[in-house]
Structures are given as C-alpha cells and as structure tokens.
Design a protein that fits this description.
homodimer; mainly alpha; Arc Repressor Mutant, subunit A; 10 helices
Chain lengths: ~190, ~190
DNA sequence: TGACAAACGGAACTCTACCTCCATATCGTG
DNA sequence: CACGATATGGAGGTAGAGTTCCGTTTGTCA
C-alpha cells in the first residue's frame, strides 16, 4: 500500500515519481507559509496537481508531514557525519553540526512549524532516523566530554531540549530573527566551564 | 461589551461572576488535557454551564485563551517583584524568579499549550502585562550584570527566548519530565563565566 | 500502435468545531 | 412579592478542512 519508491518493489510510473517530488516540495512551501494548519487543497494547488493525486501518494495529512520530518532528520544525521569527518575536537564538531542543523531549520521552516505539535502518527514515520541521530551524537558527546570541551554532565537528551527550544524560537515570527542569539546561549550552556 | 468585572462599570450579577470563574478554571483543565484544540463545548461541559454562557462571558475562543495568558503574565510579574523584594544579588533574584515562573508553568500547562501557537488576537489581550514584565526584568538584569552574576551581554529579550524554550519542552509530553534539566542548562547560559 | 494498468483531477461527501439565537430561568430591587 | 433586567442552556446553523470516489487521462510494454 505504500507508494514510496523502494528497491525490489514495482517501479512507479515516471509521472507519478515526478508528481511525488512536486508534492513534497509544494508541501514545504505551503507549510512554511501557513504553518500546521495549511490545507491539503493548497498543497495540491501549489504542486499543480489535484487533491486526489496527493492522497494517492500519501494516505493522509500526517503521512505527508511525516515525510517532511523524516527528510529533516536525514539532514541532521548527515550534518553529524560530516562534522565528525572534518575531524578536530569531537565536542566542537558536535556544536558545529548543531549550528548547521539550525541553519537548515531556517531554510526549512515548514518542518519546524509542523514539529511544534507533532502527532504520534508523524513520529512513527521516522523513528529509525531519530535513533541514528541519537547514536551519532552520543559518540561525539563522549569524545567532547573526554577532551574537556563539553560540560561533564552532558547527555544525548540535552540536544533535543536545546534544539526544540531553538525550533520554538524560529516558529514564532516575532522571535525568529533572534534565533542565532538563542543558539549562542544554548551552545554556551553545553560547553564546559 | 466587555464582561470583565471593572470598577466604575455596572456590577455583574452574582451568578454571572461565579460562572465566569468556573469557566476560566474549567478552561485551564480542558486546555491542559487537550492542548490548543480543546473545544469550547468541552470547556462549557467541564464548567457545568451551557456553551451560550461561555460565549456570553468571552466573545470567542481567542478571548478566553487571552484571559488565561493574561493571568499567566500577572503571575510572572508578581514573581519578579517578590524575588526582588527578597533582596540579595539582583542577578540571583532574576534567576530565582525564572525558576518560579517555570514551576508555575508546570502547574498551568494549559497556558503553555496555548502559547505555543499564539494568535495576534491573544497577544492583544495582554500587551500591558508583557510590558510590565519586561520593565521589571530589565532592572534586575542591569543589577546582575553590574555585580558580575550575569553574562555581561545579557539582554531583556534573552528571557523570552529562554522561557519560550522551556515552554516548548513542557508542551511535549515526552520531554516534559526533563524540564528542570532544560532550565538548568538555560540558567547556566545566562550566568557570567 | 493498441491495450491495460497506473495515475490523475476535482466535485462532492462528511465530520468537526465555532458560534448564534431565543425561549426559559434567575437575580436584584422597589 | 412582583417585575424588569440580566443571565442561561443547548439545539442547530454554518463554514472549513480532510478524505473519498470514479470517470478520464497518461504512461508503459509488447
């Protein structure tokens, strides 16, 4: 019943694949502008397809939102991997990747809006990616504590608190311009004293 | 047209005043349980009144939410005043009042849910209280910087960032138990190094 | 190119939640 | 106590948003 283009699964028709991408891209635009209560009809219109087509690719609104969130976690996971590959102190690498994740958030506000009130159905779509992010950051944290860059009591779960906070700042139009300041404060709180 | 019990305004009937309090109290319960999409009918039921009565006291949903938010800012403002009155270092007083505000948030999660997606109409109800909070905290910040307790570049606007972050942690059921940890991190980021 | 399956479009259905309306009940005062 | 003003209750109007359905179009493969 899933419409995702998986290996060892009948390949989607060319137009279907094209439309799927258009819908995801349109969803980003529309959710960015209207937040969580953007409408499926608007997504369809922005993608230049009918509503029926949107529902052919995503069984319901949560599934569409879930796909956006999933791609976001893929990004974060990649930033962690890149920062680590660049070498240097693991703690600094972690803080660098958090900065990049925040910069990515700014470009993809759609997902932030959507994540500020996530439904269980949304999380279900991307449990795997979340786990990967946690594993990768755990490794960097351990290294950063050992080298004295990060506060000795730092935990993996701190990241979610911090980044959730940044997200909430970005989600509020009046606070959004201050997000770098918020990040500065947050990163300072993770550094060893 | 307002139904608030103001001085120099015809006094509300006794039953009306009683119901108004019941409605506000019920709204807190219902919004706490169901978040932003709690329904007016549920509020009415919880208050033991008809929907019509709710609408007699608050012209629409935003007005009801606005009243909750307004009362929340009154609390915060009082915490600031109390912390200051207790004396000691102004910076410590500020951090103490932030802790109390967070503790108050936990008791009144309704407002947090509601503030995570505030509509302009809601903010309009309580512009005055916000200003008062800003003035009072500005004073404590200046003192705390002077005494070397707070980071030298701290600004009034930092508080909104920090507390918004804590609120977003509390609003997410899976993160909520960690709110004290988040507060600890946040307060550390405000202290001078 | 012809035929079949896959994909599409969008009108219409349905469900939900805010809000209105007005007949009835209650309060407060002379 | 009686009477006018105020307040109440809750059924139903209304509007908006998610989803379905099916006749039509388009891609793919032999």
């Amino acid at each position: 019943m899933t419409h995702v283009d998986q290996p060892n699964q009948p390949r989607m028709r060319a137009d279907a694949r094209r439309n799927r991408e258009r819908i995801i891209s349109a969803a980003r635009d529309v959710f960015e502008a209207a937040g969580n209560d953007a409408q499926m009809d608007d997504v369809a219109a922005a993608a230049g397809v009918g509503v029926g087509t949107v529902y052919r690719h995503f069984p319901n609104k949560d599934a569409l939102i879930g796909e956006l969130v999933r791609q976001k976690f893929e990004h974060i996971s990649r930033f962690l991997a890149e920062a680590k590959a660049e070498g240097g102190d693991p703690g600094e690498a972690l803080l660098r990747s958090l900065t990049r994740s925040a910069e990515q958030m700014e470009l993809d506000m759609a997902t932030q809006h959507v994540m500020s009130q996530p439904s269980p159905a949304v999380w279900a779509v991307c449990a795997g990616c979340v786990q990967e992010v946690q594993d990768r950051s755990g490794e960097l944290i351990a290294g950063g504590i050992a080298s004295g860059t990060l506060r000795p009591d730092m935990q993996v779960s701190d990241i979610r608190l911090i980044m959730g906070g940044i997200a909430s700042t970005m989600a509020d139009p009046s606070l959004r311009p201050s997000w770098r300041r918020h990040l500065e404060l947050a990163l300072d709180s993770l550094r060893a004293r």
